[in-house]
Design a protein that fits this description.
This protein has 340 residues and is of the alpha/beta class. It has two domains: 158 residues, Rossmann fold, CATH 3.40.50.720; 158 residues, 2-Layer Sandwich (Dihydrodipicolinate Reductase, domain 2), CATH 3.30.360.10. Helix 1 packs across helix 11 and helix 7 runs parallel beside helix 9. The protein has eleven helices and 14 strands. Helix 3 links the parallel strand 4 and strand 5. It is globular, with a radius of gyration of 20 Å.
Length: 340
C-alpha cells in the first residue's frame, strides 16, 4: 500500500479497539502496522479475534509495544494509562487520538474528584483538541492530540449545540441517557453478567458521573459561560446503542428549523421527524436527532441517538483522523446500520 497512513492501535482487543479495526481494515488510506495488547501479546490476530482471520492483519502479532514505525496512535486504554503514555508519544513526534478521558477536560482540578488522579500535565491539556468534528472541525485539522469525546457527551452535546451556537439563553439542562452494556467495556463485572443484566436495567452514577464535567467544560468553551447539566445515565440490556434525551428551557425558537440549519451540511448528523431507534444507528457513525417543543410545559425536548461504540467512540475517532489528515470525512465510515 503506497503512501498509506501508518497506524498503531493501543488496547486493540477491547470493544473500542475491535470496532476501530473494523473501520480501519477497509479504510482506503490507512495501513495497520502495530497492534498493542498486554493481555494477548505474542498471539496472532486470527487466534484472538477469529472473525478477522481473513483480513490482511490476520497474521499480525499482538505486542506490548509498537513493532513497526507508524504515524498515528489510537489509544483505546484506561484513563491512567493514556495519561502517562500521551506525553511520551508526542515527544516521539507521533500524532495521537486518545479515546480515554485523560485529556478531555481543561480544568485540571476536576480529575482528582471525578477520575481519581491528580492531573499534572497542564501543557499537554492545552494542546489537546476536543474531537467533536461538527463543533471543532477547524481545530481538529492539523492537531497533534485529539481527545476523543465520551459517548454520553457526544450524543448530548450534539443535542444542545444548536442552542449554544445561536447564543439562546439556556440556564441549565436535564439529561437522561440510556446506553447498551458495551459502554462498560469488555472486562467482566458481576452486575453485567448475563443472568443479572438480562431483563434488567438500572441507573448509576446518579450523584456524580465523570461525563458531567466533560459536557460542562465543552459548553463553557463554546459559550464562554457556565451551563449546568443534571445528568442521569441508565444501562439497558442491549449490547450497544445510546439515546440521550435533553430537556431545557430557552428563548422561543422554531426548533426544527434551528436544527436543520445547524446540521444541514453535516454528513453524520440527521434531523428526523420522529424519535429515533437505536437499531437505526448500530454499527454506524451517525447521530440521529429529533427536536421537539412541548408547549404545555414550555420545554424543549431533544432526543439524540448514536451507537456508543460508533459515533460515541471508535468511528468518531476515524472521523477525527480523516479531518486531521485531510481525507474525505466519510472515508472508511460509509456503513448502513446493522438492522434488525
Amino acid at each position: 500500500m503506497e503512501q498509506a497512513l501508518r497506524v498503531a492501535v493501543f488496547g486493540a482487543t477491547g470493544y473500542t479497539g475491535i470496532e476501530l479495526l473494523r473501520s480501519l481494515l477497509f479504510h482506503p488510506y490507512v495501513e495497520i502496522k502495530s497492534l498493542i495488547s498486554q493481555t494477548y501479546k505474542g498471539k496472532k490476530v486470527r487466534e484472538v479475534l477469529p472473525f478477522l482471520g481473513d483480513t490482511y492483519i490476520s497474521e499480525l502479532e499482538f505486542t506490548d509495544k509498537p513493532s513497526e514505525d507508524y504515524d498515528l496512535a489510537f489509544l483505546c486504554l484506561p484513563h491512567e494509562v493514556s495519561y502517562e503514555l500521551v506525553p511520551e508519544l508526542l515527544s516521539q513526534g507521533k500524532r495521537v487520538i486518545d479515546l480515554s478521558g485523560a485529556y478531555r477536560i481543561r480544568r485540571r482540578e476536576v480529575y482528582k474528584e471525578f477520575y481519581g488522579f491528580e492531573h499534572e500535565k497542564e501543557e499537554i491539556l492545552k494542546k489537546a483538541v476536543y474531537g467533536l468534528p461538527e463543533i471543532f472541525r477547524e481545530e481538529i485539522k492539523g492537531a497533534e492530540l485529539i481527545a476523543n469525546p465520551g459517548c454520553y457527551p457526544t450524543a448530548t452535546l450534539l443535542a444542545i449545540y444548536p442552542f449554544l451556537k445561536e447564543k439562546l439563553k439556556v440556564e441549565n439542562a436535564i439529561v437522561h441517557a440510556l446506553s447498551g452494556v458495551s459502554g462498560a467495556g469488555r472486562k467482566t463485572k458481576q452486575h453485567f453478567h448475563f443472568p443479572e443484566m438480562t431483563e434488567n436495567f438500572f441507573n448509576y452514577g446518579v450523584e456524580k458521573h465523570r461525563h458531567t464535567p466533560e459536557m460542562e467544560d465543552v459548553i463553557r468553551k463554546i459559550r464562554g459561560e457556565d451551563i449546568k447539566i443534571r445528568f442521569t445515565p441508565t444501562v439497558v440490556p442491549a449490547s450497544r446503542g445510546m439515546i440521550s434525551t435533553v430537556y431545557l428551557k430557552t428563548d422561543k425558537v422554531n426548533v426544527r428549523e434551528l436544527f436543520e440549519e445547524t446540521y444541514r451540511n453535516e454528513i453524520f448528523v440527521r434531523v428526523l421527524e420522529n424519535p429515533p431507534h437505536t437499531k437505526w444507528v448500530l454499527g454506524t457513525n451517525y447521530c440521529l436527532i429529533y427536536p421537539h417543543y412541548d408547549g404545555r410545559t414550555d420545554t424543549y425536548v431533544i432526543i439524540s441517538c448514536i451507537d456508543n461504540l460508533g459515533k460515541g467512540a471508535s468511528l468518531q475517532a476515524v472521523q477525527n483522523m480523516n479531518v486531521m489528515f485531510g481525507f474525505e470525512e466519510d472515508a472508511g465510515l460509509f456503513y448502513t446500520p446493522l438492522f434488525p
